[in-house]
Amino acid sequence: MKRIVTAAIGLLFLLNLAGQFPAAAQxxxxxxxxxxxxxVAPDFTxxxxxxxxxxxxxxxxxxxxxxxxxxxxxxxx
Amino acid sequence: xxxxxxxxxxxxxxxxxxxxxxxxxAKQIGVTFPLLSDMNKKVLTAYQILKPYDVKxxxxxxxxxxxxxxxxxxxxxxxxxxxSAVDPNxxxxxxxxxxxxxxx
Lengths: 77, 104
Prior knowledge:
The complex is a heterodimer.
Chain A: H1 2-28, E1 45-48, E2 53-55, E3 64-69
Antiparallel strand pairs in A: 1-2
Chain B: H1 2-6, E1 9-15, H2 19-29, E2 35-37, H3 42-46, E3 50-55, E4 58-63, E5 66-70, E6 76-81, H4 89-103
Parallel strand pairs in B: 1-2
Antiparallel strand pairs in B: 3-4, 5-6
């Protein structure tokens, strides 16, 4: 029984490794922000398309905010 | 987008385009959420989204497409980068989850 458990743990470990490496290699290819879940989002104030100032902290306590960073509007990319 | 509003969430688009270019873009694709101009790249820098490129010695920086979900406490809940960030469904599901958490 003990041997089966050890083998099972070993197998899980191997599967885990196999799953992780390709993902890690892929992530290296893109700029990786070090920000992660749980971090405080850096505050900012930016001009909107209507020339209004929009401040991230204005939404605090009111709304969840999705920040969608996109590249070059007119390329559609 | 109605799906997002249901979950008590606003969307902010951020790019390095000028407000005038963003206004034209908003009109063109009919977005209802604000498009913000980060012309001096201060937010892109703060969020570490700029990626330096070197194409045959011609160096430039480009923003990486990224979706970040910030909760009501100002904390980051979800970070998605790269091609998968084009698909907003995972960000939507995070927000729906947050909404449920707050509602209960």
